[in-house]
Structure formats: C-alpha cells, structure tokens
Automatic annotation (TrEMBL):
Gene3D superfamilies: FAD/NAD(P)-binding domain (3.50.50.60). Residues 11-178, 298-361 form the FAD-binding domain. It comes from Hymenobacter antarcticus. It holds the Pfam family FAD_binding_3. It catalyses: L-kynurenine + NADPH + O2 + H(+) = 3-hydroxy-L-kynurenine + NADP(+) + H2O. This is Kynurenine 3-monooxygenase. Keywords: FAD, Flavoprotein, Monooxygenase, NADP, Oxidoreductase, Pyridine nucleotide biosynthesis. Belongs to the aromatic-ring hydroxylase family. KMO subfamily.
Length: 455
C-alpha cells in the first residue's frame, strides 16, 4: 500500500488490552483510528469478563502505559505484590521477595484496565470504537474486512488501508495470514487447564491472606495461585491436569472437590465459601502457546499481542509483552516517521519475534518453577545465594526474574543470561548447604572464578 494520507484511518481489530492501548498510541500520533471489537462495550452495565479477573502488571507494561500517560492512574487501583508467599500442605508459609526493596509487580483488574484504556481512547479525537463487530475473515488482496454485526446478524465488507490485528490468541486476522504461502504457525496446548475461584474478603473488607503478595500453593504436578483484589478478596487460579488421578476429570462431584481441596489446600478451603459452586459454574480454560511468522502482510497488515505470540500465563508476561509491542512500535514510528510503514513493519517483526519466542520458553520454564521448584528448600536457598551474588557484583548479576519483570532487557537476552546463570549455579550449589556457606573462602574463590569467566 502507498503511504497513508493523514486522513485515512488506521484500522485496529480487537479492543482487548493490546488493541485499546495500541489505538491510543496511534491516535496520539495524529492518526484517525477505527477499532472493531466482537464483544459488547465492556463499559456498559452487566458486562461479564470472560477470564482472569486480575493480572500481574510489571515494568514493561508500566512503561507502555506511561507512554500514553495512564500509568499513574492505573497504579492508584493496582495492589503492589512484593514477593511470593508459598503455602505448604500443612499451611506453613515461606516468603520469597520478587526483587529488591521497593520493587513489586501489581495486581490489576483486567476489566478496569480495559475500560480505562477505552475511555481514554474514546476521549482522543479521531478514535472510533465499534463494538459488536466480529471479524469473520479478511480479503488480503482486496484489503477488505468481512464483519458481522452481532446484534443484527448482518454481514458487510469494510475496506481498510492499514490493519492492526490485536484480536487475541484465536485471531481472525492471523487466520487470513495463515492461508498465505509459506506461513509458519504452531499451537501447543498444555495438558493442563485452569479454573478461577475466589478467596472471600473478611467481614470488614479486609484481606484474609497477606495482601501485598502473590500466593502460591505449589504441589509438584499442579498449583494454585491467588492475587489480591481491592475489595479484600483474592482471585485464585487452579492450574490442574485435564486427566489423571488428580485432575479435573477426577473431580466430578461437590463432595469430591471439597475432599480434594481440604486434603491439598487445607489453609485455603475455609476462606473459599463458594468453592463447590464456583468449581462447577466456572469454565475450565485451556492453556496454549502460539507462534507464527511473518507477523505482517506487505505493509498492509500487522499482528500484535496474543494474535502473534500467545503464551502460557506462568511468568505474568502475556499482557506485558503485548504492551511492550505497542511501545516498540511507537519507538519505530518515532525513529522512521509515520509514513515509513514498510520499514516499520519489517523492523518490528524482526526485532520482536526472537524476544517473544524467548518469552514463550520462559513462561513454560516458570510453570515448572511455580508448581514444583518453589516448594524445594534447595531451590529457595539457591535464590538467596543468587541475591547475595547480585549484591556482591552490582550490575553484573541480575536475577532472571528481575531481568524479565523489572527491566527492559530484551527477553531473548534475559533468557540467555538466565541460562548462563543456571549453569553457574549448578556448579556452585553442590558446595553450599546453608546460606552462611556463601562466605566460606573456597566458595568465594569459586564465585570469583565464575564471575571472572563471565567478564
Ligand atoms: P485479548 O485480551 O484476548 O483481546 C483480544 C480482543 O479481540 C478481545 O476483546 C476479543 O473479544 C477481540 N476479538 C477476538 N476475536 C475477534 C474477532 N474475530 N473479531 C473482532 N474482535 C475479536 N498476562 C500478564 O501480563 N500478566 C498476567 O498476570 C496474566 N495472567 C493471565 C492469566 C490467565 C489465566 C490467562 C489466560 C492469561 C493471562 N495473561 C497475563 C495473558 C493476557 O491475558 C494476554 O496476554 C492479554 O490479554 C493479551 O491481550 P490481547 O489484547 O492481545 O488479546
């Protein structure tokens, strides 16, 4: 397509988290933007959010929100979580800080964040939001959208000049790209599903578990997590096999659910008065990693967010990486100017693809860490030793979690550094049985040697 005259609208498909933020970025650069979204307007009364009531927002997401001036506003309604609290089967608690003093990830309500971004987008001159518009397909050659009005069930075609596909993991925009020659696509489902449950607020709206933490019940083959909400409740997510002796398939009756939860999550059950009802009323969600390439079609279509890189949720980076897509695109627009779409689309996918691939691997890696390794005292000791190395060698050892969560280091670099650190720790840890061993001359000599080899 030819460079876009400023009067021609850019088209965004999908007004979820990434689409609403992207439309704000594009509109702030002076582009007219039209947004189509399958769902009804989530700001209307009675709207039911489909999944994950709250999300962990971290530095990459904050920076992207900051770029359109909305970070402070969202921070007001976020709850800082400074670390993990692990709950063992006896109800004993172990704390593990996420970073250093003052660092936190934030529990943020998905619906609130989406509505706030939509409000801001609508307040921008030039953004037109169209709800109840489902994309059925795209004619890439004719540059036409096939839209269904979900209220009237009328189908129509709408032309586009430049289309941004932010319509999520099962993107219809990507579906059109997939039909083009030599298109790479893969989807991998975990044999696990997830179920959302609730830890109720105390009678006075207080938090019945430590508020400023992400709670984890690691159980080896499965886990439950809980993130705090502003009203005193916690949103719990059980990540659980579909099949097997301990699985969704094995829990068929309310009595089986209660017996199982009482056995494996005994400290949580008394705080979950609606457990049986919610377990059967709430859907079981699936967990998928989706990779594809290219993310663009000529300089007409570009995919962002889950549409191009859906990942499993165990690092809390799905939304954050999608938001980082928006700030990365904006940086390219800044660098090349708003008419240089061919260069911008090409550079965007070239820059982002290796990083979101690394993030997909990291998310799977963290699944094992969260469900299993955080319950292992040796692993927790290793994390303490890593923190000591980080203090001893400022700027030369940033723990992997911090690189992913509290930095803007490209994900692929973070992952490579994390793998180097893992290798070092596997050589060091056999010499360490307790925290104090770190100070022993022989251990210090090894640490110095390893760090010198890194330099
Ligand atoms: P979506 O949020 O899926 O939005 C896509 C939008 O497109 C939707 O509004 C949809 O209605 C619309 N749409 C879809 N198809 C069509 C169509 N054919 N026509 C028109 N519109 C369409 N990420 C984090 O960073 N931190 C977390 O803590 C975290 N926790 C998670 C927990 C769970 C259980 C899950 C499942 C995910 C979690 N994520 C988390 C990931 C995060 O939810 C996604 O990465 C994020 O929602 C992606 O945003 P998106 O806008 O790309 O896609």
């Amino acid at each position: 397509a030819a460079p876009l005259p400023a009067t021609e609208p850019l088209t965004v498909m999908g007004a979820g988290l990434v689409g609403s933020l992207l439309s704000l970025y594009l509109a702030r650069r002076g582009h007219p933007v039209q947004v189509f979204e399958r769902r009804a307007d989530p700001r209307r009364a009675g709207f039911q959010e489909g999944r994950s009531i709250n999300l962990a927002l971290s530095d990459r997401g904050w920076r992207a929100l900051g770029g359109v001036g909305v970070a402070n506003d969202i921070r007001q309604v976020g709850i800082p979580m400074t670390g993990r609290v692990m709950h063992d089967v006896q109800g004993n608690l172990t704390h593990q800080p996420y970073g250093h003093e003052g660092q936190a990830i934030y529990s943020v309500n998905r619906g609130h964040l989406n509505r706030r971004l939509l409000d801001l987008a609508e307040a921008q001159t030039g953004v037109q939001l169209h709800f109840g518009q489902q994309c059925l397909g795209i004619d890439l050659k004719k540059q036409q959208l096939n839209l269904l009005d979900t209220a009237t069930q009328q189908a129509r075609t709408v032309p586009y000049t430049r289309l941004f596909g932010t319509d999520g993991a099962f993107s219809a925009v990507r579906g059109a790209l997939q039909k083009t020659d030599r298109y790479d696509y893969s989807q991998d489902y975990l044999e696990y599903g997830y179920k959302e449950l609730t830890i109720a607020a105390g009678p006075d709206g207080s938090w019945l578990l430590e508020k400023n933490a992400l709670h984890i019940w690691p159980r080896g083959q499965y886990l439950m997590i809980a993130l705090p909400n502003l009203d005193g409740s916690f949103n719990c997510t059980l990540f659980f096999p579909y099949e097997g002796p301990e699985s969704f398939a094995a829990l068929q009756t309310p009595a089986e659910v209660t017996a199982f939860f009482t056995r494996v999550f005994p400290d949580a059950v008394p705080l979950m008065p609606a457990l049986e009802e919610e377990f059967f009323a709430h859907p079981t969600g699936s967990l998928v990693t989706i990779k594809c390439f290219p993310w663009k079609y000529d300089d007409d279509v570009l995919l962002l967010g889950d549409a191009s890189h859906a990942i499993v949720p165990f690092y809390g980076q799905g939304m954050n990486s999608g938001f980082e897509d928006c700030s990365a695109l904006n940086e390219l627009l800044e660098a090349h100017g708003d008419a240089a779409w061919p260069t911008i689309f090409a550079e965007f996918q070239q820059q982002r693809k290796p990083n979101t691939d690394a993030m997909a691997d990291l998310a799977l890696y963290n699944f094992i860490e969260m469900r299993d390794r955080v319950a292992d005292p040796r692993f927790l000791l290793q994390k303490k030793i890593e923190a000591k190395i980080a203090t001893q060698f400022p700027g030369r050892w940033t723990p992997l979690y911090s690189q992913v969560t509290f930095s803007h280091t490209p994900y692929a670099e973070a992952w490579a550094a994390g793998q180097r650190q893992d290798a070092i720790m596997s050589r060091l840890m056999p010499h360490i049985q307790a925290e104090a061993d770190f100070e022993q001359p022989a251990v210090q000599a090894l640490v110095q040697q390893e760090m010198a080899a890194q330099a």
